[in-house]
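# nightly structure sweep
# worker-07 picked up a monomer target from the shared queue
# config: single-sequence mode, recycle default, output format = structure tokens
# input follows
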Amino acid sequence: MTNGRVIQFRRGVNTIRERHFIIEPEGVKDRKEASQLIGKIVEWKSPAGKIIKGKITAAHGTKGLVRVVFERGLPGQALITKVEIK
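# output follows
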């Protein structure tokens, strides 16, 4: 189990995908290491104690970021908060 940080919504110029997020896992430095995390479960815990789960679907870029699709969208307050990767 490792931790990560929510970086941003996955977005284009005109669209934002509410359930897709970019996550920065701790200790991952390149795309090769990030590719090994594909399929792992990610959990975000709200300040009220509610847990929202997601799944890592792909590596994002060359610096070790990953894309995560959550079962439902995270609130805006989730940006720059921590998540658990199991």
